[in-house]
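This part of the workshop introduces the protein records we will be handling. A record pairs a protein's sequence with a compact description of its fold. Comparing a sequence with its tokens is the quickest way to learn the format. The record below serves as our worked example for the rest of this section:
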Amino acid sequence: MEKHRCGWCKGDALYEAYHDLEWGVSVTDDQKLFEFLLLETFQAGLSWITILKKRENFRRAFDNFNPEKIARYGPDKYQTLLADAGIVRNRLKIKGSITNARAFLAVQKEFGSFSTYYWSFTAGKQIQNAFADYRDAPAKTALSDRMSADLKKRGFTFVGSTIIYAMMQATGMVNDHEIKCFRYDEV
């Protein structure tokens, strides 16, 4: 018997694996949170599957999503990234990733970890939603609005409310698996 999955991932093996193993699982590791922040930055205006297919190229190009290294990128590395056909070559998003790495490190310094800051918005708890169909999930919420505004105030870029809500879903801050999905009770 086939497992019921959320409708958004059906039909693509890479999407299904991401759904089954990662999406909606609570992430508290700073490096992993930064990875999702960087990938969500590049996803803006594109489909997630586009980014997922290029994920390993992003990992290689952006030093395994290491914020300390990315924060030190200068003009030469910026030009190298612009020329890298394996990633999304968007000038503003590349600059935004460097800016966000610097802001990320500042948040780590202030709060002890980015995870402490990030999860403080929900008191460390996952928000349990109950949608029968993935299309019923919102694109943003009052909480993602608040997080977005705070991140912008801290110098982050490409952190609009919709991007932040997608990150909240991906990192398990909210459980937006369909209630009949086999992962709903597992995450």
Residues 8 and 82 are 31 Å apart (CA to CA). DSSP finds ten helices and two strands in the chain.
